[in-house]
Amino acid sequence: MSQSPMGIALPRLTPAVKVLLIGNIALYALLGVTGRFLPQLGEILLDGLALSWAGIVSFKLWTLLSYSLLHNLADFFHLFFNLLLIYFFGPTLEGRWGSRRFVIFYFSGALGGGLAFIAFNLLLGSGALLVGASGAVLALIIAWGILFPNLPVYLFGVLPLKGKHLILLTVGVELLLAVSQTPVSSAAHFGGMATGALLVTGYWRPSKLWARLGFKLKVPIARKGRRKTPKFTVVINPDDDDKAPPGGWVH
Known about the structure:
Blueprint: E1 2-3, E2 9-10, H1 15-37, H2 39-49, H3 53-57, H4 63-66, H5 76-97, H6 99-124, H7 134-147, E3 152-155, E4 159-162, H8 163-179, H9 186-201, H10 206-212, E5 234-235, E6 249-250
């Protein structure tokens, strides 16, 4: 961590985070240049990298990930805030997991957001395009809040907010956006958040989820050459003492 002139600790750039920041900026600039001087090439790039149901049925499956590297040219602040959040939350997670696992997690969040967007738009019969790293970024924020529930993060560089409260704030804001007339894709946002939570907690594994819910799945394994002796539980019913055999009832 480095210190800003105001005394706020700033994260040091890690390799994967640096590549993500540069990649997003480079593609944004490329779309801007081609859109202005080579509009046909710009349309080809957008059509080949943005996510849509039409693209998926055309077997452009890579767009489930590539959309997260694009941003709307008309909304610079969408790019700015996404990159700012990657910069603040990414290095801590990459330092904890390593670059390879961090990249896998990041694009898993993008994939979860993309799948949720496709499912939602298929349900509504929409032909919308999806661009933006918000699904992956929200997966990072949820993961950070779960892993560091009591570690403070300074909102706007001033207001301290614990990780667990950051999760509540993030979900609350997304719920407000979902019911408002905003152009963001709430389905992709919630898909990214859900993916991040499932991955970082391990609840994507059915066995762990069942254990959390109080279910235990035990499969007896018969060993060769040994006869498995069944286990019984002896239960004594006090109301039937006169009828129960010595030792109680066997169930």
